[in-house]
């Protein structure tokens, strides 16, 4: 049972780490970088992204976090066997 607890704890730590990194990256890209580029290109007023863009990036954060976490967790398990 102790091994299972360590595995779950390790996976949750990795998951939260990737979630935080991807979430902050997408917030920066969506709310600062892309509107800044649109403002430079069109001289328009700052525009927030639409609901469809937010939904798309939200799904991307979830999928990328899960895939990265599982990959790193398996990699960590393989290295710990050596």
Produce the secondary structure layout.
Elements: H1 2-42, H2 51-81
How would you describe what is shown here?
Helix 1 (about 1-40) runs antiparallel to helix 2 (about 50-80). With about 80 residues, the protein is mainly α. The longest helix is centred in the N-terminal third of the chain and has 41 residues, at about 1-40. It contains 2 helices and no strands.
Cα radius of gyration in angstroms:
18 Å
Shape annotation = elongated
Q: What structural class results from the helix and strand content?
A: mainly alpha
Euclidean distance between termini CA atoms:
22 Å
The main sheet comes to: none
- Helix percentage range: over 70%
How many DSSP E strands?
Answer: 0
Q: What is the string of SSEs from the N terminus onward?
A: HH
Strand content: under 5%
List keywords for this structure.
82 residues; mainly alpha; elongated
Concise synopsis of the structure shown:
This protein has 82 residues and is mainly α. The chain has helices at 2-42, 51-81.
């Amino acid at each position: 049972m102790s091994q299972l607890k360590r595995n779950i704890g390790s996976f949750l730590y990795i998951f939260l780490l990737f979630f935080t990194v991807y979430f902050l990256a997408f917030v920066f890209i969506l709310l600062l970088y892309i509107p800044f580029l649109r403002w430079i290109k069109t001289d328009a007023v700052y525009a927030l992204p639409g609901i469809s863009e937010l939904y798309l990036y939200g799904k991307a954060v979830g999928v990328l976090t899960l895939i990265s976490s599982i990959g790193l967790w398996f990699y960590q398990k393989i290295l710990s066997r050596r």
